[in-house]
Amino acid sequence: MEAVPMDTSADHGASKQAGYRRSTGTPRGEARRRELLERVTDDLAVNGLVDFSLRRAARAAGTTHKVLLYHFDGADDLLKQAVHALREKRVDQARTAATDGATRRTLAEWVRAVWPDLVGREALVLEQAIGLAMYDPERYAELGRGASSQYLPVLLSVCPEHWSEQRKLEVAEMVLAALRGFLVDARTSADTGGIAAGFEALARALEREEAAGT
Predict the structure, then answer these.
(1) pLDDT level of residue 101 (50, 70, 90 thresholds)
(2) How far is CA 134 from the centre of its chain?
(3) E strands, 94-145, where?
């Protein structure tokens, strides 16, 4: 997992400064907030979290850091929302991959279908966010908790319908943890053969699990 040095020392707590109103409750303000968030999210997808700051976000959004503070509660809030938006895009891809046309994919088929999206260049920032949550859990814990809460419903939906809720949860958590481990290896090592072998072992284990029935 990559180190993620971030230039947030000057931004942390900026939202506590007096004089910045919050844009809430108006359609125009919400539209502007979404527009700014989308621009910052696009920047993160391309450039990752390294050296992220409120000023860099302002440049990406084509505005000033004071305008961002009008719409967001500082750099940490903006980062959390942008990471959530990027992850939601990947979750949507994972949700779409649950079916092949009109046919519902098995768990093994699903993990093979989603893997290319998981290791895509745009997804790198999401692994960096997990690293940041591990580096400073008191400040960035939500970046890690959000990953599980967003992905788990999709994984549960892919599990065979006749499984018990407990079995679905156990297998979904196992798959989530295994994929996260493969992603760490993919981002930090050149052992593509080892990752491929482990990934296929996971897929075969899921095939056996589903074939075993209830």
Answers:
(1) confident
(2) 14
(3) 99-100, 103-104
Q: Which residue is associated with the tokens 């908790």? A: 145
Beta-carbon contacts of residue 20 (< 8 Å; ≥ 6 apart): 66, 69, 70
Task: Give which of 56, 48, 61, 14 is closest to 132, Cα–Cα.
Answer: 48
**In the 3-class helix/strand/coil scheme, how is 14-73 assigned residue by residue?**
HHHCCCCCCCCCCHHHHHHHHHHHHHHHHHHHHHCCCCCCHHHHHHHHCCCHHHHHHHCC
Length of the chain: 214
CA distance 202 to 205: 5
Tokens of 106: 């098995």
pTM for this structure?
0.77
Partners of residue 103 on adjacent β-strands: 100
Least confident interval from 3-7, 50-54, 58-62, 148-152: 3-7
Give the dihedral of Cα atoms 116, 87, 51, 71; nearest 10 deg.
Answer: 150
Please tell me the distance from the alpha carbon of residue 119 to that of residue 135, in angstroms, as a whole number. Answer: 22
Bridge partners (DSSP) of residue 100 are 103
Whether the Cβ atoms of residue 132 and residue 83 lie closer than 8 Å to each other: no
Give the helix ranges, DSSP H, for the chain.
27-47, 54-61, 65-71, 75-96, 107-118, 124-135, 137-158, 165-188, 192-211
d(CA 105, CA 49): 34
